Description:
By secondary structure, the chain is of the alpha+beta class. The protein folds into 2 domains: about 1-70; about 70-150, PH-domain like, CATH 2.30.29. Helices cover about 35% and strands about 20% of the residues. It has helices at about 5-35, 50-70, 105-110, 135-145; strands spanning about 70-75, 80-85, 90-95, 100-105, 115-120, 130-135. It has a 3-stranded antiparallel beta sheet with strand order 1-2-3. Strands 4-5-6 form a 3-stranded antiparallel beta sheet. A hairpin with a 5-residue loop joins β2 and β3. α1 runs antiparallel to α2 (about 50-70). The radius of gyration is 46 Å and the shape is elongated.
Amino acid sequence: MEQLPISVKKLWRVGGIFTGFVLGLIPAAVVVTGVVAFDWSRSLFALAAVPVVAAMAVGFWWAGVKFRNWGWQISDRWIEAKHGVLGHHRVVIPRNRVQTVTTNSGPIDRMLDLETITVHTAGAGAPNLTIPHLATATVSTIRRELGQGVNEPSSEPAPITVAPAVEPALSVPPATDALPREPNMPPPAAPPPMPGPAGE
């Protein structure tokens, strides 16, 4: 399995820390509001930083696991990708079902020379496969390789040509109306005349 560029790991970790910081501000704001508005103990101010730090640490860890579990590969017949943090997801599509290949890159991707590639498959309800944040050179190689189609030998046997059967000709003697006669045999006698009507 091929892994994503190492720069993606840094990008995801920065995003995870930022997301954790934003989410951690919610419980921190509750603590600060309680201290200010409801005269809670001022020692609780220190607790306001705990959810922020914890959420940032979770975001950092989540990004690392997400990067480690992401993988993809292209073989002569299949395109495969796997990813997931708590659960693992795997997508495998045959290369002969590939219809189009599209790419997308945002501002940060362009700064890091990265692109996201999506392989669209033919057929209603067929899954698409998206590989995020690949190097631009890798994306060009994938597009060129998928454009060559499926590389597999034909499994169909070669057609067999069968010559038509020739029936042997039968020698049939010519039909004759007369029966064969032995040599020196007199011709048959003429039949006697039929008797006429009475009184003649």
